[in-house]
Amino acid sequence: NESYNFKWSLNSCRSRTTCITFGHNAEQLSKIFRCCIEKIVLNRPDKLKCLFLIHYIKCHLVDYRQKGAAVGRIPTNYLRRELGVTDHEILTSRLIDRSIRPLFPAGYYYDTQIICNLLAVDDIFICVNFNPLSHLYNIGWPFPFHRHFVDIMLEAAADNILQQDFCHAIKVGLKHTQQIIQGIQQLVREKGVKKRTDQKLFTTPEEIVKYFPGADSYEITESFNVVAKEIFRNLIINEYRRCDGRDFNTLRNITCEVDLFKTLHGSALFQRGQTQVLCTVTFDSLESSIKSDLITTVARYFPPYATNEIGRVSGSNRRELGHGALAEKALKPVIPNKFPFTIRVTSEVLESNGSSSMASACGGSLALMDAGVPISSPVAGVAIGLITKPNPEKVGDIENYCLLTDILGIEDYNGDMDFKMAGTNKGITALQADIKIPGIPLKIVMEAIQQATVAKKEILQIMSKVIAKPRPSRKENGPLVENIQVPATKRARFLGPGGYNLKKLLAETGVTVSQVDEDTFSIFAPVPEAMYEAKEFINEICKDDQDYQLEFGAIYTATITELRDAGVMVKLYPNMTPVLLHNSQLDQRKIKHPSAIGLQIGQEIQVKYFGRDPTDGRMRLSRKVLQSPATSVVKTLSEKRSIGNAVHESANSA
């Protein structure tokens, strides 16, 4: 229950206000018509301000960009500028595109580009703001859409919630969005813009046009597509026949395999009809994650050969990113909150004929169980299609319809809806519905959820015959992570100068070390052999030697191993790592260099031991304190005799 202020800057000088009630609050629409059709401003008092600039250029494409200033941050790249498009921007662009695409009228062949620049953060209102602009401009849409308007597009990520709760949430959202739509319709009526009739950009090959000299080229091609599509749809809606012979509720043949490659941490092959995906799981250290708030990352690849085509193989395109994000939404709720590794699920689409994203969710679930990830429950997904028969007497009304389980690619292309839903036996984890007609009744959405739930449970039963639950342990070739305790007295020796020891360990074994707390360090090894080598290396540099036998306040004979400007490096026993005895602790007098008092390499001097520094673990020695009249006992440390058995000589016998 919040109030929002919308301001549309359009090409007029009039100013009016329309109020929309949201619960106990109001949403105020202030319309200032001036300059040009290019600016939409949303002002949310005391919270967020959004400014969207929308331009029409050539090319039917939606681009959403978020400026660094919108979140009060400077871009972290070298040039400190907004460069490449981020995953979030691509997913938001796809969301807007799927929302507006069904509303373009038949025969609309104008190249159109929508550019949304977010200047202050809050992307939920982008779709709300694009509604009046599109209507007030000149696109012949029947009525406005809304991001939460389920009759146009539906997308959700859920924490395995129950079906009845999910359906209730849809109904509540639909109820409130109707109020926004009414306000937009009022704005459109007040403006009254004529729709444009620019020259269409579509052309038809000449060999087809010559048979119909009296018709426009675009009309010929469009007529052929309409007839072919109508025949396909009539077979389903009138004769109840699908092109592959299945009935409306039957799944395609499904086969599953796991543990395909022994060298992988986890692998699975999921085949559903002519759709085939190979999913793999890779473990790595938590530091390797590109997301600070997520353990799981799903990467999806859709190469050209998956559809028997030739094309460019480059970075992730918008479709791969969008489908990967949907699969990640489906799998994320079942991943344990505490897991010692970053999990990367890769889905390689080897063959595609419908619903490869839901196949990725199924294959990813199988691969996770094969890798030994203790997921709370297996996940499966399915796509539901829709074929409708419009009522010729009432525009926008549906006379008859059929819901199709597990649709093919051609059923998706010629159908009216691609309703993808994933979840467990208990509930729903992800949903995405692309609706290709200007609206469907809420009843159809509820039926699609029910039909998808039945199909989902059937798929889970098939998957359980291959692997019903996660492996009790990870594979032997998987990575290992262990915690070790490093006391403050050994921390400097463990890390090395400037972290040299940790860098050397990474270069030689591939093992990474990260600090958990003051005395605890986490060791990540990609393979068990690397963990063994790392432990040997750490034990060698941290071995106690004879340190624990040194007595606080005792005097020992030290050997100078190196002269430095700051002091001398000394050893108390042969296998000891040299430590620095600073100039300030060499003599009662202030000296600039050890040579000033005649010290040389190899010379033996007497020092007093004051334990270790509690902050960095460095040994504290002093020669200066011995330059006093007080008589002290000198302890001799030799390679043959341990410190504990060192000879204690009294001052008198000395």
UniProtKB/TrEMBL annotation:
SUPFAM superfamilies hit by this protein: Eukaryotic type KH-domain (KH-domain type I), Nucleic acid-binding proteins, Ribonuclease PH domain 2-like, Ribosomal protein S5 domain 2-like
Enzyme class at the top of the EC tree: transferase
Secretion signal, residue range per the UniProt entry: none
Coiled coil: none
InterPro entries assigned: ExoRNase_PH_dom1 (IPR001247), ExoRNase_PH_dom2_sf (IPR036345), KH_dom (IPR004087), KH_dom_type_1 (IPR004088), KH_dom_type_1_sf (IPR036612), NA-bd_OB-fold (IPR012340), PNPase (IPR012162), PNPase/RNase_PH_dom_sf (IPR027408)
Keyword check for Cytoplasm: yes
UniProt EC number: 2.7.7.8
One annotated GO biological process: mitochondrial mRNA catabolic process
All copies of domain S1 motif, residue ranges: 553-624
Key words, A-Z: Cytoplasm, Nucleotidyltransferase, RNA-binding, Transferase
GO MF, any single term: 3'-5'-RNA exonuclease activity
Keyword Ribosomal protein: no
Family as reported in the entry's similarity comment: Belongs to the polyribonucleotide nucleotidyltransferase family.
Protein's name according to its UniProt entry: polyribonucleotide nucleotidyltransferase
Organism of this sequence: Pseudonaja textilis (Eastern brown snake)
Gene: PNPT1
